[in-house]
């Protein structure tokens, strides 16, 4: 009994679908009798589709460009991160390098050549290791014009000579950079 009702309902549904298809065909035939109207509608539909396609192309191009910019930006950030990843370690090693500089000056006053050679060897090894990690010394010398972008003036003194006015008189502490970024500015004395 149940199966007969299901099959009967299914047959009714297929009959209804056939009737709907027939009505659509009749509507098409009626529209075909008025040919100008159909052509006008098709062009507007075609124009609409063309506009939709243009909008979607524009969206796609903008999204693609945005993604390319994102890739470039993240790639640059990643490269910068790799360049400066060991910045903290290198900055903490700079006082040790300064102590070696000062110690080397005092040890060279000693007459023990083996001691001087040993300290120089250790100093050069430390310095070459830091340089291999990207550390560079900021080149600033006495007599150079003072540039606040590359050096930090800790004091001004009367210039010992007229040609040293506004220039660096002495370098108190060396400066270092990692890649293009200065991680410690050189501390200098300038003449006024």
Automatic annotation (TrEMBL):
Protein name: Protein GrpE
Main subcellular location: cytoplasm
Keyword set, alphabetical order: Chaperone, Cytoplasm, Stress response
Lineage summary: Bacteria, Pseudomonadati, Bacteroidota, Flavobacteriia, Flavobacteriales
Protein's organism: Flavobacterium agrisoli
Annotated family: Belongs to the GrpE family.
Cellular component, GO, one term: cytoplasm
UniProt key word Chaperone: yes
Cytoplasm keyword on record: yes
GO biological process, one term: protein folding
Gene name as annotated: grpE
UniProt function note: Participates actively in the response to hyperosmotic and heat shock by preventing the aggregation of stress-denatured proteins, in association with DnaK and GrpE. It is the nucleotide exchange factor for DnaK and may function as a thermosensor. Unfolded proteins bind initially to DnaJ; upon interaction with the DnaJ-bound protein, DnaK hydrolyzes its bound ATP, resulting in the formation of a stable complex. GrpE releases ADP from DnaK; ATP binding to DnaK triggers the release of the substrate protein, thus completing the reaction cycle.
Subunit structure: Homodimer.
